[in-house]
Here is the input.
Amino acid sequence: MKIGLIGLPTVGKTSLFNLLTGSNIEVTEFSQGKVEANLGIAKIPDERIDFLTSIYKPKKTTYATIEVIDVPGLVKGSSAGKGVGNQFLDNIRKVDLLVHVLRVFENDNVIHAEGSIDPMRDIETINLELLFADLGVIENRINRIETSKKVTKENLAELEVLKKCREGLENGLLLNNIDLTDEEKEILKTFSFLSEKPMILVANVDEVQFMEKDYPSRKDLLEFAASTNTPLIELSIKTELEISELEPEDREMFMEEIGIKESGIDLLAKTSYDHLGLISFLTAGEGEVRAWTINKGTKAKEAAGKIHSDIEKGFIRAEVCKFAHLKEYGSMAKVKEKGLATLEGKEYIVEDGDIIEFRFNV
Here is the structure.
């Protein structure tokens, strides 16, 4: 999975990038002409992997990961080339999910690009840039089809969908809020439209705002998130960065004191997985304990292909153990003794946390 961190300058994007990836990228007030995106890998904490590692003591432990792209702060007119301009568009066209970081915290020493704190205004600013960028691509493609001397049946179908999208965009709707059929979505796939991508909002609050769950725009943000089916996460990124530098035992105590039930990376990972319809299955042995990311609804044979195409081709059966059963009984031998490990065929729908050993012919 690949996510793109977007937002105006000085909202906390790069700080969130550092928190997720363990990086130490310098945080400046503005991008100062920077057009390069920060790239990093976030390891997703998983207590199931930790538990399996304690049992199997493997040579290698591999957690699921998220590729994170932190693009320079956007400004009004980015879609038309202002600021970092079209450079950022190329960076985030390749991501699966957009994470829009919104500044809620107040700090007189950190100037807001728009001069004041107003996350609802900032949502509109960024959404308009995504909308205008997509509208430009659509207008160009419609013009090419309509002026072409040879128009195919496929071109006409594409033209119809693009005009539907253009109408929605001109009415202020992002593509992910336009009612499209599966066939229409398939036609649009090749374009990698920005406003079609799933999005999560991160409200970057200060420690007091986080603890009190109260700030001026909170009601509006919650209503907007609910009405657009956009997950909203409240994080105090500065506080979480400070906590991440503490020893584990101090970290837990501090999190409890200020009411952080799970870390920012845990919360963002879970929300991202849920929003994209992803789950993890697990494999375990003395060689390696590993989490594998798949789509919800994936069948056993297809999941085997995630490990290696030969396993998918030669698939015979999948021996499945539920993580809860292994945790309860402490060993795979006892789980099998209780008759709780099952043999499943290729049509079995893999569930989140399944521990699977695939049987196959090479």
